[in-house]
């Protein structure tokens, strides 16, 4: 009875996720800074930011819808945290799993974007509303290729459960190679989900201040920022689970270290891409996603269908 | 937000894209800008008027503070105008030193611009790199003049500090470093796909429009207009120097970027020539305290374009009238044209591409009354009266307060 509660609240649940996401933010910021030839923040900066924001006054615009405005950060945080439990982190089994949890995880990762939209839209400020619309427009562009690549990997494993996928790929070492194209696309489109350069269009500060979050302050902003961090960890863990199914039999401690290394490697990729490119324009981003990534992701689906026919007959 | 009507977005007076208060009111349909209106006047400092109450030497330092970035441009332009009225011919060495500082200033201004442009399109890496390299030229300037900005180099009749022989190798070394880095930026500008995609075909200003709107500096030169005061009307030591006027004919923000990075290369080469040819002799001549009656217009190619100063002297030690036309004023008219039918995302970079310096440009407060649609200039007395009334309504009477103190 106590074990599930410990798992959910402490390890590998909420408390671990909280600190792990702050560490991830630090790693991303520090590496980004070093790539840009800056010094970067000290290790405790994300935690300090979080605590400081918690202590600040919550200002809610008069015209904003009070309830939606307050609820959205909580929704965002809840849904991304829930998604974490269904992803196999180290070892082949997630904390919870059932057939179809791939779809649920993808769905739970989409919810925060909807909360950005609603939170921004009901802030009733011009910048928030433009940011909100941009968030949603962008969602329709990157979501399709991202889903297709992950579902392509699931197709090959012939299961809709992330844990069974992990079991499949570790039973068939080397099969992950077939998903490399999907991995590349998923990594790039994930930047869209995380709203990072070159896809940080919804919060482009030089155009629309902070997009959806313009009117947010204090605790609500802290929750939003935390959910963005957690979303980064969860999204990257999902990619690691699906596309990097290596050394899953290493045992708990070695497995944990391997997991952290995988996450660190993927965050490094995020930081690298972030410092290599300029922000795209919304029309350019949509063109890129629909004309390049979506066909390539579709190609990945076809490849996996053919492979499945050839390998398992 | 498609087909839900137009949205008015206020960019400024306070906005992260703007480093100075200025107002751009954009009307958006979806992501497209359908109309743009530019309103200046948030940063008027009354420098021209203040100049009339100070002596020429005091004015020189006041004028230098018109702009933090092209400070040397303004003080040189002013000094040239005053020297012309007084009939002073400054020594050749002074001319060379003025030109060296001017070109170093151009280098620092263009590097600064490159970083700002990177930031406006979300390419912060470029900002961090160029501003790191800008420190090299800032150090050279600090070494030569004693200051990083507002160099205080000019005086009426010459310059105040000499360049020592042992400083020359250090300057040349810094210039070599900068040249190497600039080559790297030229390579980036030619190769980096997101940069090219974001800048090409953005903020178009055709050759005809550039002429019609009276654009100056890199903004005009990127539209193929051969307009450079250094070549057209050589001042200081530019007549002795061999250099090219960089133009580009893509007429867009990308062209403006290319013009600026290539101008950096020209500036390095100009600085080397100047240092090699630096003539011996005094660095200043004695100028009279009272400037004889007369008037003069002085032109100067600031990093942002042609800077124009008009000075009228009345025989005393204070000018009768000083008029400054900063380059941004010439270019800002073109911005509304460039913004039309563009995306909201292009707005920051289009505005940044003229390298605006709004504080240098601001003139007077002109209020547009919406109710009876008439323009009204605020007189000093009226502002004074209104402010007293405003406080009286709230129960504070300054007339009484003054008596009690």
Report the end-to-end length of chain B measured between terminal Cα atoms: 59 Å
Question: Termini separation of chain A (Å)?
Answer: 44 Å
Number of E-state strands of chain B: 10
Instruction: Describe the oligomeric state of these chains in a short phrase.
Output: heterodimer
Number of helices of chain B: 16
The low-confidence parts of chain A are: none
Number of strands of chain A: 0
What portion of residues of chain B belong to β-strands?
5-15%
Overall residue-averaged pLDDT value of chain A: 86
- CATH fold label of the domain at 47-329 in chain B: Cytochrome-c3 Hydrogenase, chain B
What proportion of the residues of chain A form beta strands (DSSP E)? under 5%
Main β sheet profile of chain B = 3 strands, antiparallel
> What is the CA-atom radius of gyration of chain A, in angstroms?
19 Å
**C-alpha Rg of chain B (nearest Å):** 23 Å
Please, how many domains of chain A? 1
Class derived from helix and strand content of chain A: mainly alpha
Shape of chain B: globular
**CATH homology-level superfamily of the domain at 47-329 in chain B:** Cytochrome-c3 Hydrogenase, chain B
Q: How much helicity do the residues of chain A have? A: over 70%
Question: What can you tell me about this protein's structure?
Answer:
The complex is a heterodimer of chains A (313) and B (405). Chain A is mainly α. Chain A has one domain (21-308). Chain A has twelve helices and no strands. In chain A, helix 4 runs parallel beside helix 10 and helix 8 packs antiparallel against helix 12. Chain A is globular. The N and C termini of chain A lie far apart (44 Å). The mean pLDDT of chain A is 86. By secondary structure, chain B is an alpha+beta fold. Chain B has a domain at 47-329: Orthogonal Bundle (Cytochrome-c3 Hydrogenase, chain B). Chain B has 16 helices and ten strands. Chain B has helices at 47-52, 56-64, 71-86, 92-120, 124-145, 167-191, 193-199, 207-212, 217-221, 229-232, 253-277, 327-339, 347-353, 358-361, 380-393, 398-404; strands at residues 7-11, 23-29, 32-39, 154-155, 158-159, 294-302, 305-313, 319-325, 366-368, 375-377. In chain B, the strands form four sheets. A three-stranded antiparallel beta sheet of chain B has the order 1-2-3. Chain B has a three-stranded antiparallel beta sheet with strand order 6-7-8. In chain B, strands 4-5 form a two-stranded antiparallel sheet. In chain B, helix 2 packs antiparallel against helix 3 and helix 6 (167-191) runs antiparallel to helix 11 (253-277). The longest helix of chain B is centred in the N-terminal third of the chain and has 29 residues, at 92-120. The model of chain B has no long low-confidence stretch (mean pLDDT 84).
């Amino acid at each position: 009875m106590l074990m599930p509660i410990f798992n959910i609240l402490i390890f590998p649940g909420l408390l671990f996720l909280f600190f792990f996401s702050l560490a991830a933010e630090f790693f991303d910021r520090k590496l980004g800074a070093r790539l840009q030839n800056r010094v970067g923040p000290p290790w405790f900066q994300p935690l300090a930011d979080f605590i400081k924001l918690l202590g600040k006054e919550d200002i809610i615009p008069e015209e904003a819808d009070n309830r939606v405005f307050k609820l959205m950060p909580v929704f965002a945080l809840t849904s991304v945290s829930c998604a974490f439990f269904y992803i196999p982190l180290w070892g082949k089994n997630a904390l919870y799993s059932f057939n179809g949890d791939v779809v649920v995880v993808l769905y739970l990762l989409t919810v925060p974007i909807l909360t950005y939209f609603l939170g921004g839209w009901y802030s009733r400020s011009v910048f928030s509303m433009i940011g909100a619309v941009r968030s949603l427009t962008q969602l329709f562009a990157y979501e399709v290729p991202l889903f297709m690549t992950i579902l392509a990997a699931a197709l090959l494993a012939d299961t809709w459960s992330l844990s069974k996928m992990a079991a499949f790929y570790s039973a068939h070492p080397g099969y992950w190679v077939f998903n490399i194209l999907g991995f590349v696309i998923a990594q790039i489109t994930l930047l869209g989900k995380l709203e990072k350069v070159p896809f940080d269009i919804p919060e482009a500060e030089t155009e629309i201040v902070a997009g959806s979050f313009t009117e947010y302050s204090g605790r609500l902003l802290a929750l939003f920022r935390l959910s963005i961090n957690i979303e980064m960890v969860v999204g990257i863990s999902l990619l690691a689970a699906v596309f990097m199914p290596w050394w899953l039999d290493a045992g708990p401690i070695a497995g944990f270290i391997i997991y952290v290394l995988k996450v660190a490697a993927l965050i490094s990729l995020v930081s690298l891409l972030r410092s290599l490119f300029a922000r795209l324009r919304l029309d350019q981003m949509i063109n890129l996603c629909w004309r390049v990534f979506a066909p390539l992701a579709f190609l990945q689906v076809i490849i996996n269908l053919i492979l499945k026919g050839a390998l398992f007959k | 937000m498609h087909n839900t009507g137009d949205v008015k977005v206020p960019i400024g007076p306070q906005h992260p894209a703007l480093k100075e208060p200025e107002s751009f009111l954009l009307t958006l349909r979806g992501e497209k800008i359908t109309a743009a209106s530019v309103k200046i006047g948030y940063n008027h400092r009354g420098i021209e008027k203040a100049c009339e109450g100070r002596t020429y030497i005091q004015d020189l330092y006041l004028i230098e503070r018109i702009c933090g970035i092209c400070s040397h441009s303004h003080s040189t332009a002013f000094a040239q105008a005053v020297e012309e009225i007084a009939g002073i011919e400054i020594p050749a060495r002074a001319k060379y030193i003025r030109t060296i500082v001017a070109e170093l200033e151009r280098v620092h201004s263009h590097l600064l611009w490159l970083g700002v442009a990177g930031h406006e399109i979300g390419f912060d890496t470029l900002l961090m790199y160029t501003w790191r390299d800008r420190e090299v030229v800032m150090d050279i300037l600090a070494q030569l003049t004693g200051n990083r900005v507002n160099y205080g180099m000019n005086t009426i009749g010459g310059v105040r500090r000499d360049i020592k022989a042992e400083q020359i190798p250090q300057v040349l070394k810094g210039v070599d470093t900068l040249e190497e880095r600039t080559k790297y930026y030229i390579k980036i500008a030619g190769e980096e796909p997101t940069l090219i995609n974001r800048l090409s075909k953005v903020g178009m200003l055709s050759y005809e429009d550039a002429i019609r709107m009276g654009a100056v500096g890199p903004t005009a030169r990127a539209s193929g207009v051969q307009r450079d005061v250094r070549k057209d009307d050589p001042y200081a030591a530019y007549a002795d120097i061999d250099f090219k006027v960089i133009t580009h004919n893509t007429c867009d923000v990308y062209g403006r970027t290319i013009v600026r990075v290539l101008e950096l290369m020209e500036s390095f080469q100009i600085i080397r020539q100047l240092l090699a040819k630096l003539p011996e002799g005094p660095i200043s001549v004695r100028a009279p305290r009272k400037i004889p009656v007369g008037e003069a217009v002085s032109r100067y190619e600031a990093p942002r374009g042609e800077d124009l100063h008009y000075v009228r002297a009345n025989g005393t030690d204070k000018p009768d009238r000083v008029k400054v036309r900063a380059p941004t004023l010439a270019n800002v008219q073109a911005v509304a044209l460039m913004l039309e039918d563009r995306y909201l995302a292009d707005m920051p970079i289009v505005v940044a591409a003229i390298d605006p310096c709004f504080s240098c440009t601001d003139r007077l407060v002109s209020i547009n009354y919406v109710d009876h649609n008439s323009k009204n200039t605020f007189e000093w007395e009226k502002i004074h009266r209104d402010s007293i009334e405003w406080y009286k309504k709230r129960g504070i009477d300054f007339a009484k307060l003054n008596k009690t103190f």
